[in-house]
Structures are given as C-alpha cells and as structure tokens.
Design brief:
285 residues; alpha/beta; 8-stranded mixed beta sheet; Chromosome partitioning protein; P-loop_NTPase
Length: 285
C-alpha cells in the first residue's frame, strides 16, 4: 500500500506523523518511510543518519531502472527497526531528486509503486507541504491513500476550501486530520463539508521519541498518545486496503418488478412471474 502524508499550508508535523504512522502500522506488514518534502528532509539530522544512501542515491539509481528491491537498497534503519529513505536537508538537492523521479515515471515513481505492491509492505511518503506545481504532487497523486494534516486555526483552514475538492480526487482514500487547538471537528466539518477523522493529540514526549530525542525508560510510540492515535489511523487505512469478498453468483434470474397497470389492483405474483388477471365480475371459472 502506498500512502502519502502531507499538508497544504504551514508545518503541522507531517514528518513526525508519517514516522508515527509507519511505526504503528498493524503487523505483520513491513513499513517504509520515504521523505519527499520539497523543503528538504529532517530524518537524517534527527536520527544522525549518514548522508547516503537515501533519496538522492535512489533517484540516481532509478535512472538505470530496477525493481522493488532497489528501493530497499537505499534505506537506512532507525532505532526500533523502521526503514527510511531519507532526503537531504538541502531543499535544492531534494527538489532535484524528486524531479528526477518524476521525470522518469517508469523507472522512478514506478519503483515506489512496486515496493508498495509487495506482499505485506506499506510505503509511507512524507510529501511535506504540497503547493501547486510542487515536485511532490506526482507522488501524492499516485498513492492509494492520503493523510492530510491541517492546524485548526482560521488562517490555516482558510486555505482549504478551494483546494480540498482537487486534492481529495488524487486518491480513493483521503483522510483529513486536525492538529493542535482551534476550531472543533464539528465546526470544521460544517464549514468545509469534510468530516475530520480526528485530532492529532498534543504529546510532547511522544513527539520527542519520533524526532530522535532520548526517551524516558520504557517510553515509546506504543505508550504515547501520539502513537496510539497513529495506530488508530493506520488501522483505518489498512482496513480500507483489505479487499471485500466478491458477491456470490445468483443462481436464478431475479423476477422483474411489475409496474402498476391502471384499473388493475395489486395481486400476488406466482413463482413463474405471472400475475393472475383480476376478477372483474360475472361467474368465476
């Protein structure tokens, strides 16, 4: 499954929630986070990762083609075992790498799709703030599901009405989440016509762990309010991925509904689909 996490304005914690979503994705799936924010990556600095492998090396290798395993070859491991494709902090390098992936869809974006289509794999793409014309748009538009984050203040929400209908059509499974204090979920739903799935909790210690900062003993995503909320969202998205069972074939052709005939009162329909003619007087046969 390929999932994008993004915002349309500001920085409401997209990277942190993308990591939380991947860390709490229901098992036994393997989760992978790909940084694709045009403003540059944060994970390398937060977790003291090497400059390579990562998004830049993946974009360079993708020009020569490859398969789903190529994506995994350009990952690094965070504490706890989560694999990530980290983007460089420099925005120009990141945008160049994203442009290279989008320029060769068959060997670039298709690699992410192939990785996400592997059995038991979910790829979470941190698209950051997505503006019109952003190099992250092609990735977001190719995802199976999208998680849109927005702060709940008036100035943040004011940017959504015109863009929400367009962005919602990028994927069959859009999810809208509020972040931080502000308008209630009911007020936002009434004004925007879109019901938020929930509000990301303000969890300083949980966010610190997901940002690579030292945690208190036995404190991790599973014990934090942020991690538990991310698990709820991950479960919702994973359930949408599960294919529904096909309907059993009909053994008999259904009997067509009979239309009302003027002057003929309703009567029972026999098993062969014929309704007896009404008795209109005289002697019954």
């Amino acid at each position: 499954m390929l999932v994008s996490v993004l915002s349309l304005k500001g920085a409401p914690g997209v990277t942190t929630f993308a990591v939380a979503l991947a860390a709490r994705w229901p098992g036994p799936s393997r989760a992978l986070v790909v940084e694709a924010a045009p403003s540059g990556g944060d994970l390398a600095l937060r977790f003291s990762l090497a400059s390579t492998p990562g998004l830049v090396s993946l974009a360079a290798a993708a020009r020569r083609g490859g398969d789903a395993d190529l994506v995994w070859q350009h990952t690094q491991e965070l504490r706890g075992g989560l694999r990530v494709v980290a983007a460089p902090p420099d925005a120009e390098q990141t945008r160049a790498a994203l442009a290279a992936l989008a320029q060769h869809p068959a060997s670039g974006l298709e690699l992410l799709r192939q990785a996400a289509n592997q059995p038991g794999v979910v790829v979470i793409v941190d698209c950051g703030r997505v503006d019109p014309g952003s190099p992250g748009v092609p990735i977001a538009r190719s995802c199976d599901a999208m998680v849109l984050l927005s702060r709940a203040h008036a100035d943040d929400l004011a940017h959504l009405p015109r863009r929400l209908p367009t962005v919602a059509r990028w994927t069959p499974n859009p999810v809208f989440l509020l972040v931080g204090p502000g308008y209630s979920e009911a007020e936002v739903a009434r004004e925007l016509g879109v019901q938020p799935l929930g509000r990301v909790p303000h969890d300083v210690r949980g966010a610190a762990v997901l940002c690579g900062r030292p945690a208190a003993r036995r404190w991790g995503p599973a014990r934090s309010a942020l991690g538990q909320f991310a698990q709820k969202v991950a479960g919702e998205l994973a359930a949408r991925q599960t294919p529904t069972a096909p309907e059993p074939p009909q053994l008999h052709t259904p009997i067509p509904a009979l239309q009302m005939v003027p002057g003929v009162p309703p009567a029972a329909v026999s098993p062969n689909g014929v309704r007896p003619a009404p008795f209109t007087g005289g002697q019954k046969p």
